[in-house]
Amino acid sequence: MEIIASHGTIFVILAVVFGLFMTWGIGANDLANAMGTSVGSGAITIKRAIIIAIIFEFAGAVLAGGHVTGTIRSGIIDPASIINSPEILVFGMLASLLATAFWLMIASWKGWPVSTTHSIIGALVGFAIVGIGPEAVKWGKIGSVVASWVISPIMGGTISFLLVMSTRKLIFDTDQPLRNAKCYAPAYVFVVGFIISLVTLFKGLTHLNMDLTITQSFIVAIMFGLLTAFIGWLFIRRVKEDRAADRDFHFASAEKVFAPMMLFTACAMAFAHGSNDVANGIGPLAAVVSIISSGGDVMQTSPLPLWILLLGGGGIVLGLVTLGYRVMLTVGRKITELTPSRGFCAQLAAAATVVIASRTGLPVSTTHILVGAVLGVGLARGMGAIDLRVLLDIVISWLVTLPAGAFMAMFFYFTLKGIFS
C-alpha cells in the first residue's frame, strides 16, 4: 500500500504513456489488418481508409465499446492471493502494457497480422507466472486461445470461399456480369448492414440504454439492412459500363460495382473493431487507474472512464496512420491478389464469423478470422493463388505471439519492481 501511496501519480502517468503506446500498436496492426482488404483490393485509398477509421472506430468504441471493467478484464489471471500487495498487480499491468506494445510494434514493422488479444493474454500470463505464481493463471483460457488458431481461420475461410462461389454463380459466370452485379449487389449490402447491426445489438448498446430482446434485435437489424441496401443501390446504379477497361479485364465493369460496396464493409469493420477491441486492448490501463484511484483495492469493479476510451481510440488511429501500411500490404496484397469482389467477400465472411462466434461462445480472433477469410478467397482460385511463404510467416507469428508477450512481460515486471520497490 505504501508504494501505491508514494508513487500513485507516477504509475498513472506511466499507464497512460504505455497505454497510448499499446493502442498505437493496435492501430498499426489490428485496425490495419481490418482495413487491409479494402485498401489492398483498390476499392478505397489509404487516405479514405483513415477517414473511415477515425469516424467509425470512435463511434464503435464510444457507442458499443466496453462499459464496465473488472480489475482483470480478460479473466486470464486470479489476483486474489495478492490483495494485500496491490503494487504487484500495478507492476504486472504496466509490464503487460509495455510488453504488448513492443510485440505489436515488432509484428507491425515486419508486416505480420497478429492478434492483439493474444498478445495481451501472453503478457498477462508471463507476469502472473513470475509475479503471483503459475496457479494464478486460468489455464483453461489458454486452451481456448490455442483452439482459436485453428477454429478462426477455418470458419472465416469456409464462409469467404462460399461467398466467392456465390458471386461466380450469380455474377461472373453469367452472360451479363455487370447487369447481374447491379441486380444482386443490394442483397449483399443488405447482409452487411444486417450482420453488423446484429453484432452491435447482441453486444448491447449499454451507453444508449438500449436492451432489446432477440426478436426485437432481428427486426431492427432487418430494417437497418434494408436501409443500407437502399443507400448501396443509390451508389451502385451510378456505375457505368467501361468497355475500354473490359477489353483489358473482362470483369472490370462488374468489379466496379463492388467498389462502393467495400465502403460499407470498411465502415462496418472499423465500427466492429472499435466496439470489440478498443475496450479489451485498454483493459490493463483501466486496471491500473482503477487500483490507484481506489487506494489499492485489487478486486473492485468500476466503470470504464470515457477519457480512457477516447485515449484508446486516438492511439489506434495514430498507429494506423503511421505504421499501418505494412500490415495492410500483407493482408491486402501479399497473401493473394484481391479485387473489390474478393475483398468484399473476405470482409463479409469475417463479419459473419464474428456474429456466429459471439452467439455461440466459440473462441475466435478477429485477426485470424480475417486472414482465414482472405485465404478462403485465394483457395477459391486454387492453391497456386496463395503465397505460401507469406502464409508460413503469418502462422509462425501467431505461434510466437503468446511466448513473446510472456517473456517480455517478465522482463519488464522485474525491471519495474526493481525501480519502485
Automatic annotation (TrEMBL):
It is found in: Membrane. The chain crosses the membrane at residues 6-28, 49-68, 88-107, 119-136, 142-164, 185-202, 214-236, 257-275, 304-323, 368-388, 395-416. The keyword Heme does not apply. It is a multi-pass membrane protein. The keyword Transmembrane applies. Keywords: Membrane, Phosphate transport, Transmembrane, Transmembrane helix, Transport. Belongs to the inorganic phosphate transporter (PiT) (TC 2.A.20) family. This is Phosphate transporter. It comes from Desulfofustis limnaeus.
